[in-house]
Amino acid sequence: MSFDPRTEAEERENLRDVTWEELEEHSSEANAWLAVYGRVYDVSKFMDDHPGGADPLWQMAGQDATSEWDAVGHKEGAARLMEKMIVGKLVGKRPQRRTATKPTSQPTPVVPMEQGQSFPLTMAVVVMFSLFLAYYLFF
Question: What predicted TM-score, i.e. pTM, was given to this entire model?
Fold first, then answer.
């Protein structure tokens, strides 16, 4: 079970409100904020010291990283360290993401064969079978 970093932060009464939009603005390596359990942390100066390397922090910058926090199983020491980086509490509704539609290749429509169009296919199968049979019987 992972340690919830909110414990001491909840005792502070003067945490400022941070909107989702503001959190998303802090998504670069030089200016990286992330949210864990509704609290926002500035991890910019911790990138080089993070035991898992800077990549996990950088990848989650500007986002809610609660599930990643839990997946790693951070202990109480990590939560206490995060307390020094707290910016505020996350407020408001998470904005709905507009997903960019990537162009996809359209499936080739299946066109039913007209009468007589199957002749080349049938001939190809007959020829292949004949060659196989001739090879098997004569070689």
Answer: 0.60
